[in-house]
Amino acid sequence: MTMDKTKFLIIALVVSLSLNLAIGGFFAGRFIGHGDRHHDRSGFHFDRRAALKELEGDKKDKVREIWKKNKAELRQNFRSYRKNKREIAKLLSEEPLNQEALDAYHQKMMENSVASKTLIYNALLETARQLSPEEREEFFKSGYRWRDKHHKDK
Q1: Where are the domains of the chain?
Q2: What fold does the segment set 48-147 form as a domain?
Q3: From CA 143, how far away is CA 52, in angstroms rounded?
Q4: pTM, rounded to two decimals
């Protein structure tokens, strides 16, 4: 009887420790080391909202206007990009593979990506022209913060 009770207590201890480690590991992985990192999947790494916090008054309004005038076109490019990406995913699962259709959707997707990146670059350039050197430094430092713990500025 003593042996069965000891065996039961050992199994209960192992199960309890396993559950505690699993729960502790979940919370540690979830919260430690994440900071203010964003999980940006778009490939565009400029955080305009964080950068705008560095500006005040008229400068902030001017920069907002620069970005507003490209907003509709950017939105359309992003939507088209995602739509083409979904079409590619659908075509890749079909049998037989339709290489011509895949190439056409891929081409459209890349055109949307380049057009979006060009709009963003032009908005950043126009923004830089509106700011003094000191304002530019703070604005772009905040907008291009590294969000990955492996690439922090030293």
Answers
A1: 1-34, 48-147
A2: Four Helix Bundle (Hemerythrin (Met), subunit A) (1.20.120)
A3: 8
A4: 0.59
| Token duo for residue 111 | 């055109």
The one-character DSSP state at 96 is S
Question: Which residue intervals of 1-154 are DSSP H helices?
Answer: 2-31, 48-52, 57-92, 99-130, 133-143
Angle 59-36-68 from CA coordinates, rounded to 5°: 30
43: amino acid identity, one letter: G
User: Per the structure block, which two tokens stand in for 114?
Assistant: 């380049």
- The answer to whether the beta carbons of residues 40 and 147 sit under 8 Å apart is yes
Residue-wise pLDDT tens digits, 6-25: 888 899 999 998 989 888 88
For 61-77, how does the pLDDT look when each residue is reduced to its tens digit (9 = 90+)? 888 898 889 889 999 99
Distances from the Cα of 94 to the Cα of 81, 86, 88, 143, angstroms: 20, 13, 10, 41
DSSP label at 148? S
Q: Do residues 67 and 125 touch, judged by C-beta distance below 8 A?
A: no
Say whether 125 sits in a helix, a strand or coil: helix
Q: Quote the CA–CA distance of 108 and 89 in Å, as a whole number.
A: 14
Structure confidence at residue 53 (pLDDT): 82
